[in-house]
Amino acid sequence: MASVFLYHVVGDLTVGKPELVELCETETIETAIRAIGDSTECGIPVWKRRLSLIETSEIRQQRFVGILNSLDIVAFLARQECLDDQDRAMKTPVSEVVVQNNSLLKQVDPATRLIDALEMMKQGVRRLLVPKTKGWKRVSKRFSMFYNGRWLKSLETPNSSTNTLTMNASNLPSSSSPPTIPTDKFCCLSREDVIRFLIGCLGALAPIPLSSISSLGAINPNYSVVDSSLPAIEATQMSPDDPSAVAVVEPGSSDGRHKIIGEISASRLWKCDYLGAAWALANLSAGQFVMGVEDNHHTPRSSLPDFSVDLSSNGGGGYTSFGAGRSMYRGRSAPLTCKVKSSLAAVMAQMLSHRVTHVWVTEDDTEDVLVGVVGYADILATVTKHPANAVLSGS
User: How many CB atoms lie within 10 A of CB 304?
Assistant: First the structure.
């Protein structure tokens, strides 16, 4: 176990994180689309309405509904009744679309060890709700509080110079039942935040980051695929969970291997023209969908996509134009891939630079032949199960 996981706490990752703004389940899909543009992992937590000014962590946990992502929204808008009345569809309450799963978020104390937080995420937690306290802001720096199993500094409260808190590892707050903290301000940590933190600690994880993903066992062979000739809407019927992605494939050879040509995923649809993508999802084959769907990653986060739909042919391949002044189709959008011999560090860098939740893995000697996928969960499992001195850097 790398020492970086033992000597850091969750509070070290919260520096600079913005305060959580809750998206209530009564908000509309249109509002959710705006919020998702500023989210991580292409999704946003959804909450029941708060009924009291003061609430315990247990009540707050009960208010959490689930995480809504861009694929959920596009799949909903692709329903025939939504295509028939798009204005009404955009005003649909989020509660009718979000998949309810109360276990995807957990509140933790800022002093929770990073290793304990990683174990939660390995068990399926995708967001950590962390209180933003003034006291923690004063000392939340790398190795400032917890090192070699001991607290090195005293935590001084803002109102008293004598009230200090000294703890050792055995007295750390329990991750299963965080204490009630007198604050109503929180920030939300995602798995992307953890991976970004780990990128800054590659030396402490050596030689794991430079080892190949195949030697580390990080490649997940269980993934969802849809044949390019099938309707694109069938990808949503597979209910991909983690990652929220379906590979679009073509038969590669007689041995049953597949060649990946694209994907239908929350990452790819993160900043798309939602109504345009919904029409394409409902009317095109999976191959046609991925050959032209516009991910629109360069759209400013603060701007809402143009929801107008122009159903006129553009004369170029029989495709359809969406939105005022821009086409949803712009040629093939290749999936993000790596090779089985790619290093773990390279895959992590790919995920962070492209802001995606996963990278598809292809064979080293055959172009685009799909063998698996590496997602956030796979990386977290890999870096915590391999002792640093047990991995050969030359593997």
Answer: 13
